[in-house]
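Re-running the complex after MR caught last week's input typo. The corrected sequence lines follow. Everything else is unchanged.
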Amino acid sequence: MPEPILEALNLTRHFKIGGSLFAKPKVLRAVEDVSLSVRQGETLAIVGESGCGKSTLARMLMRLIEPTSGQMTFEGRQIDRAKGRALTELRRDMQFIFQDPFSSLNPRMTVGRLVGEPLETHAPEMSAKDRRAKVSELLAQVGLRPEHADRYPHEFSGGQRQRIGIARALASGPKLIIGDEPVSALDVSVQAQVINLLADLRDALGLTLVVIAHDLAVIRHMSDRVAVMYLGSVVEEGPTDEIFASPRHPYTRALLSAIPVAEHGRARHQIALTGEMPSPLDPPSGCRFHTRCPFAREACRADVPALRVTDTAPGHRAACHFFEEIAAEAPLPRATEGSGRTAAAQARFAMYADALAGGTLRPRETA
Amino acid sequence: MVTPSTTSAPLLDVRALSLGFGASQTDLLKGLRYSVAPGETLCIVGESGCGKSVSSLAIMGLLPKGAATITEADIQFRGAPYDLSDTAALRRHRGADIAMIFQEPMTSLNPAFRVGDQIAEAVRAHRPVSEAQARDRAVEMLGRVGIPAPEARMSEYPHQLSGGMRQRVMIAMALANDPALLIADEPTTALDVTIQSQILDLIRDLQAETGMGTIMITHDLGVVAEIADKVAVMYAGTIVESGPAEAIFNDPQHPYTIGLMSSMPRLTGPRERLATVPGTVPTIETMPKGCRFSTRCPFAQPLCAEEPPSRDFGGGHHALCHFAPLNDWLEPG
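Corrected-run output:
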C-alpha cells in the first residue's frame, strides 16, 4: 500500500459567531475531530451536502485557515503550525483548484501572468524567457494554446477558465492538488472534458488529488476512496466501489438513494430523510445524524459513534453504532432497472465513441 | 409509445417561436416548437446558453426590453391565440393561470417582507378577496407545500428559512392562484440532493392533485428521467430533438443528445473514460450555417452546412439532423 502523503489527526475547527461585551459568542462547530489519510498517487473524494464542513476541511488541509486543534502532516513533516518559509514550501507542494473559475482568476491579469505568477514565487531564479516558455508548456498541458497567454479571463468560457485555474495550480510543480468542487460549475459536456483532463494529469505527473464534491456520480468517476461527511464529521470512508456498492452508514445509504438516475423507467427506492441538516451552532448530542436517521435508537442520542471497520472490505469504516444490524435487517433497496436503450441506440453510442476517438465515417452509398 | 396525455388537447401549444438578436437579427431562438397538455410534464433540457430559459421568459412576457426581438410567434394557450405583444394580457396570465418558479429562491423573494405577506400579495393581485382571506390562503398554501407550523412561518423573513424551505415558499406562491401551467426554471439546481428529491416529489404530488401542466427547465438528465413525460433537447437556440421521455432516453437520435448522455458520469457500471462533446458552444457571432451542432459533431459532413431536416421517428419523436438515424446513413470509411 502506498505511503500516506497527507495525514490529518483529530482536526477540529470552530468559528466564534457574534458575541459582545455582555453576550458569550456562539460556537459554530464546522469540523469536529476529523482524521484522514491521503495516500501517494490516489484520488480521495470528500463528499457531503452544503454545510457539512467539507470546504472548511479542505481549507484547513491547504492551510488557508488554521485548525482550532488537531495535527496535520505532509510527507511526514508537521504542517498544522507551519509559517514563513516552511509554509511557502508547502504551498509549492500543495495547490488548490477552486470551484468558480469566474471569481478565482484576477480579471485584470492576462492568462500568461496568472499562470506565471506562481513561478515568480516558487522559482524566482527563472528568467523571463524561460518563464514564458514554461507558461506555454503549462497551457499546452491543460489543452490551451500558447497565444492564449496574452488574453484576459473574460475572453474564455467556463471550461477554459477552469483549465487556466488548473494550469496555475500546476505551475509550482505540486505533488498534491486539492480541488474544491472543481467541476460543479461546468456544463455536463465540458465537465467531462475537465474530469478527463484531471485524470490524465494525475497519471502523467503522478499527482495525488483530494476532490471535494457534492455530485456522487462525479465522485464515483474520479476517486479511488471516498470520505462522507455529515455535520462536521466523517461518517463513513472506504474504497469508492465499496461505498457505492455496500454503503453502511444510514446517511450514505440515504444520500445514494436520493440521486436521480438518467434512465427511463428506473424507479428510485428512496430512503426518505425527514427534515434538514441541524445547525452546526447547536449540533445534536450523541450521533449527529440521529435526528434524521430512520434507525435511531436511545443509544444514538447518548453516545458519539466512532468510525469502526466494516465487514465488506479493508479500509471501509462507518461511524454508526448499529450498522451491522441495519445491513442485516434492512437490505439496501435496489432501484428497479430502467427499460434500457434499444440495440440501434447502443450502436449509435458506440459510433459516437468511435468517431470521437478519430474513427472516420462516410455516408453510405445507398443513402 | 404515445402516452394518453400526449393525445389530449394541449394546454400550451408553441407552434413557432423565434427570437432575433442584434443588428443582424441572428436567431437567438430558432423555430421552437413544443406543447404541454394538462397534467403533463415537459422537460426542456440543455446546457448554459442554449436558450432554454430565454424561451420561457419570452412566453411569460419577461424578456428584458431591447435585449431581443420576437421575430416569429404562433402560440395557443387553452385553445386560444396567445399574443406575446399584448403586455396587458400577459400581465393577467402571469401569476394567475401561468406561474413560474426560478432557480434561486433567495433572489426571487423580497428580503424585506415577511413570506406570508408576499404570498398573500400574489393572491390579492389576481383575486378580489379580502386581506384576511388572502392570508388564510397563504397559510393553506404553506401547509400544502409541506412547511411545518405554517401559521408561525407566515411572519418569517426569507433569510430565516433554509434553501429548501425558500423553494417551498416559492412553490406555495406560484400555486396560490391554481395555475393551469407551471414553468419551473431549474427549481432544484441550488439544492442538495436529499432536498432536491423532496422538492421533485412535492411538484409531482401537487401536479397530480391539481392537473396542472408543467414545463421544467433543467440541465440535469437525472431530473428529466425522474419526472418528464416529454423531453425537448435544446442546443444553441434550437430544439435538436424532442419526443416522449422513453424515446429520448432509450432511442436518442441526435448526435448532441447522444454526446450529452455519453458525457455523464454514471452511478453504475464500469468506470470508463468519459466520452465528451468536444469544443465549446458557438457564440451568436460565430454561429455556423445549417446545423448549429456541426462545429462540435464528430459525424459532421459537408451536407451539414445546409439546414437540417426535422426527421420524424413516430410517436411525436423528432430529431433535427441530416443523418438521423446515424446507423442508416453512415458507415466506417
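None of the earlier attempt is carried over here. Chain A touches chain B through 64 residues (CB under 8 Å). Chain A is about 35% helix and 20% strand.
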